[in-house]
Specification:
Order of helices and strands: HEHEHEHHEHHEHHEHHEEHEHEH
Strand order of the largest sheet: 1-2-3-4-5-6-9-10
Number of domains: 1
Largest sheet: 8 strands, parallel, barrel
Number of helices: 14
Shape: globular
Bound molecules: 2-acetamido-2-deoxy-beta-D-glucopyranose
CATH class: Alpha Beta
């Protein structure tokens, strides 16, 4: 009897361990200097040395997305264990598409001197490129391919290459999420070949996803569902899948998942390259109270490991927009003030996530032991 008991306990414990070692979404943050992603080839101002590293350490964040990476910033992050997501500026996409040497030159300046001492994991070729250069859309995939091939030619296999889209221009209506599809300008065939590339190279589909923007475009959306507020009336049902959604973030993520599935690719991981809520500005709902509620709700949701109804493991990573408020920009999206002091009380740390998991494990293990002992008693 004892043998059966230990064996089945062992079996259940191993099952438990395998089911709880899935990884939670990585939470990162974006650092940017310019207020728009337009064609400004002027170098952005240099940040004070260590400003970013100090801020990341204070927030206990270990993933950083750089919107305008420059060698000085990347150098300041050597040996910090902060994983880096680099963005190639939109104005370089067409030159890179036309000439692979330009892709190679970019890598020689931004990657080779630092990698792997700087943990560069991902490169986005452009950011919301379609919104800024719709007439050059056919250059996007050739540019991505040139960056990918150049990295491989240089023997770098662990950096994945993709591009980020903005939700409102790329995904058709997200109500209900299961009917969402990708929308492309007439005569353009980008998404299908891009998804094939991402699938072939184990890369992720990347999307800038702002419940704030969708909420502002759609007056019928209640504020609470955009802010992760739990309330009996804060839900939207998807009658096709029979799923009840309680927050707009999940609705938007599942729309992306549905659109990918409709295109024939459902297993490509999703990275949310930007999300956030402004703490100031002319709009009614841009205030620090709502911004804090949104970010806290987002972090709690991601740490819970609940995923989304269609994506059990959830998205692979989420980058909050953004690290610092920009001085004098009016709409403030920063998690920190320009002087680096904290705006919100939010715990981003990995530590509290693994701690949460451990306590869950302990509780489950205790419950299993109780069940086992009861079974033994009944059998006897
Ligand atoms: C980076 O991570 C390694 C291994 O996890 C650790 O030994 C090292 O102390 C870390 N370095 C910093 C600067 O945190
Ligand atoms: C590609 O770029 C390199 C470096 O800028 C330049 O030397 C070369 O002439 C370019 N090739 C073409 C075909 O434009
Ligand atoms: C993608 O991942 C799979 C499984 O992890 C691996 O077998 C395959 O070689 C990878 N492909 C590339 C191109 O890295
Ligand atoms: C930083 O800026 C904020 C907002 O302007 C202000 O409230 C805070 O006192 C400043 N902190 C320091 C240390 O200057």
């Amino acid at each position: 009897m004892f043998n059966t008991f230990t064996f089945s306990l062992y079996f259940l414990l191993s099952l438990l361990l395998t089911t709880t070692t899935f990884s939670l979404p990585t939470i990162g943050v974006t650092y940017s200097t310019t207020t728009t992603t337009t064609q400004s080839p002027t170098p952005p101002p240099q940040p004070p040395q260590d400003r970013i590293t100090t801020a990341m350490q204070n927030l206990k964040l270990t993933s950083l997305r750089l919107e305008e990476p420059n060698p000085t910033i990347i150098r300041s992050l050597l040996y910090t264990n902060i994983s880096l997501f680099l963005t190639i500026p939109n104005y370089m996409v067409t030159p890179i598409a036309n000439n692979r040497s330009i892709a190679r030159a970019w890598i020689y300046t931004h990657v080779l001197p630092f990698y792997p001492r700087a943990k560069i994991t991902t490169i986005s070729v452009g950011n919301a490129f379609l919104d800024v250069y719709p007439e050059s859309i056919n250059n996007l995939l050739p540019a991505i391919t040139n960056v990918h091939v150049s990295l491989r030619d240089l023997g770098i296999r662990k950096i994945s290459v993709s591009t980020s889209f903005s939700f409102v221009t790329t995904v058709s209506s997200p109500f209900p999420p299961s009917s969402a599809t990708f929308q492309e300008p007439p005569g353009v065939n980008l998404i299908g070949p891009l998804l094939q590339f991402l699938s072939d190279t184990n890369s992720s589909f990347m999307i800038n996803l702002y419940p704030y923007n969708l909420y502002r475009l759609r007056p019928e959306i209640p504020l609470g569902i955009a802010l992760f507020q739990e309330h009996p009336f804060n839900f939207r049902d998807d009658f096709t899948t029979g799923v009840r959604y309680r927050n707009l973030f999940d609705i938007m993520v599942d729309s992306v998942v549905s659109a990918m599935a409709f295109a024939g690719y459902e297993t490509i991981p999703v990275i949310v390259t930007e999300t956030g809520w402004p703490s100031a500005g002319n709009e009614l709902d841009a205030n620090s109270g709502y911004a804090e509620i949104y970010l806290r709700g987002l972090v709690k949701h991601l740490k819970s490991g609940a995923g989304t109804p269609l994506l059990k493991d959830g998205v692979k990573a989420v980058y909050v927009y953004e690290l610092f408020d920009k001085d004098g920009s009016g709409r403030n999206w920063g998690v920190l003030y320009p002087n680096g002091s904290t705006k919100y009380r939010i715990d981003f740390s990995e530590a509290s996530r693994s701690c949460l998991m451990n306590w869950n494990n302990v509780a489950l293990i205790l419950a299993l032991i109780v069940v086992e002992v009861c079974c033994m008693v009944i059998v006897h």
